[in-house]
Design a protein that fits this description.
Layout (H helix, E strand, L loop, with lengths): L8 H15 L7 H16 L22 H19 L1
Length: 88
Amino acid sequence: MIIFKNKFLIPVLVFLVLFFVYSLWRRVPDIDDAWIGEHAYWFTKDGYVHSELMRGINHKEEHLVVHHKLFNQNGVHLLKLLVFLCIH
C-alpha cells in the first residue's frame, strides 16, 4: 500500500495506536458520553438528531438543532461498524 511506503509513518501510526490504547486504561466515563452516544444512536436509527434524555426541554425529543456534528458523524460510523462486526 502507498501509505506504508514511508518508513517514518509506520512507527508514528504504531505509537499513536498504542498511546490511544494506553489512554483508555482506567478511564472514567464522563456525563457527556451518554449525550454524544445518544445523539449518534438516534442519528443512525432515525436519520436526524433528537434527544430522549432532554425530553420536555424545548421539544428536544422531536429535533435537536445544536449538537456536535463531527462527534455525531464519528459515532454514526462507529455504530455502523460495530453493528456490521457483530452481525457478520
